[in-house]
Amino acid sequence: MTDGSLLRNSRFLAGLFAVVVGAAWGLASFSMRDAALGDPNAPKYFPWLVSGLCVVCGVALIVSEILKPGVAHLVTWEFTSTHRAALIGSAFGVLYALTFEPLGFIASTTIFIGGISFAYNGVKRWKANIITAIGFAIIVFFIFTWLGKPLVAFPEF
Amino acid sequence: MIEILQNLAYGFTICLTPENLLYVTLGGAVGTVIGMLPGLGPATGVAVLLPMTYFMGPTGALITMCGIYYGAMFGGSRASILLNTPGDGAAVAACFDGYPMARNGKAESALAISAIASFIGGLIGAVIFVFAAVYVARFALRFGPGEYFALMIFALVATASLSRGNLLRGLVSTAMGLMVSTIGLDGLTGVDRYTFGFLELMGGLDFLIVIIGFYALVEVYKCANPKTVTRQVQTKFGPIWITKEEWRRCLMPILRQAPIGFLIGVLPGAGGTMASMMAYSNEKQLSKTPEAFGKGEIVGLAAPESANNACSIGALIPMLTLGIPGSGVTAVMMGALLMLGLQPGPTLFQDHPDIVWGLTASMFVGNIICAIINLPLASLLVRVLSVPGRILYPSVLGLAYLGIYAISDSAFDFYPLILFGLLGLVLDFLDIPTSPFILAAIVGNMMETNFRRALKMSGGDMGVFVNSSISIVLYLLTIIILLLPLYRSWRARHTTVPSAV
């Protein structure tokens, strides 16, 4: 732990994460309205219970790490292709959510799949990326329509 | 007994209609293909293809999903044998001897025995299911709110304990899943909880968002790589079959590991990976030539294949009879059933015998169809392994988003989907298992409702939770599971000290 491994140990980090999430969830429950009938705190008991469980397990993980440092579980963090894919995927996901209804299914899906394909595969494969994007949007549109779940193809003005 | 066989015959009349036969074939074929693709296991496959089943009616939807499930179990080993890349965790054991067999020029035997073992394992699982499910369902009719609460505690703790072997991390995951289940209007008081002012969250967060986020998005993020290249895979084979000698050696391992796989499937949180690993380990211990394992021993491929297919059928027992999904795939199926207006549990057998027995019969038919798909058509199907990731992964991502849209008709749900995709990566980094999270997100609401209902019925007396023998047994089992890691570490300390001295 003296070489900074405490912060890099997944057991410690997992415990810290659990404590933060559990405490935040528990604290947020205090902003809930009281129940109008019966026990006013009735809707809060269960969230308190699970927040408490999360915090207790988190503390136990931290304590167990401090008492018996687990070098076997050391983790290091570096920016990998997985993180890059997640960031790009999430960014295009937000864009998809914002454009899905205003632009209609075909345009928004083509942008989404096209953007992801370009980001994941590079510009060199531009033909395959464009064909995948347009092909996916059109094929899925027809499958959904055939299955009785029509999508709005283009924006309605 | 006669009644069960009559019901099964009735199930066959439902399953063998042209429409349902088409669904089971479609499910088996699609599942086989999905199972082959690295990273896309049965849970992702069922989750992503779920919207396609909405229009089939409950029986058709369930038959198709189950077809995908055991199709994926059949297909999962193809990539293990030919590429040393398992489609999912349950197919990892198939790499140990399947890939060496292919390297030794025995790819045909490996493909054949994996399909034959999966087929026999699936059939044995289906036979046990027919007799076990009815009795479990009848027994479960005795459960009241207190017993259900105890059962859910047991299922959650067992899943937390078994999913990755670390109880504390599993419990953290369980607690987080239960937190997600508290989002939305409280059914008993009408108070909105954790909606953060979003009207869209009033109805709660659909747990399929959690499942698709954790499985589909995380898998795509992990696999998507600009350097993804087309994999070279053998596509030309001789006759895909085994010799008499190979058959003689494999038969007993297949027969004895199938029931064990089935039992592991019934346990919440255990699943195909554990079943196949245990089968492999059992056969290695029983073998007269354990040193041959890992070098292309056909028994080392047959045993796990049989166990993991039987396990996939065993996993349906808690979901259908108790309403408690024990694995990611059955969780998705349960979500689909709830969406179709059906409540899985003991009453399903009474209220919808057509669905239950149609599904049961489809297990036999589905396994036969999967065997047909995986034996003569193997050389055709393995070409799927050549599909480049650059086409596959953006398409899976697109299907994941559209699956969510098909459920809610709202693009708002894309935001929580993105969040759960990222959370899945964080949990993976911290080595926190996701199966307990998913199970807790699903049963959390039922658990809270049963807890409060039991208290209401007893007038606030906490004794209601321990006043039946069923509850007491379940709590005792829960305590045993909680104490097991402590006992193991105590025993490990006790056995290592003398040797150190």
From TrEMBL, chain A:
Transmembrane segments: 12-33, 45-67, 104-123, 130-148
Annotated DUF1468 domain residues: 13-147
Pfam family membership, one: TctB
Ranges in a coiled coil: none
InterPro entries for the chain: DUF1468 (IPR009936)
Keyword vocabulary terms for this entry: Membrane, Transmembrane, Transmembrane helix
Protein name as catalogued: Putative tricarboxylic transport membrane protein
UniProtKB/TrEMBL annotation, chain B:
Transmembrane segments: 20-40, 52-72, 110-136, 148-165, 198-218, 260-280, 322-343, 355-379, 391-408, 414-443, 464-487
Domain DUF112: 21-439
InterPro entries linked to this entry: DUF112_TM (IPR002823)
Keywords assigned by UniProt, alphabetized: Membrane, Transmembrane, Transmembrane helix
Protein name, as recorded: Putative tricarboxylic transport membrane protein
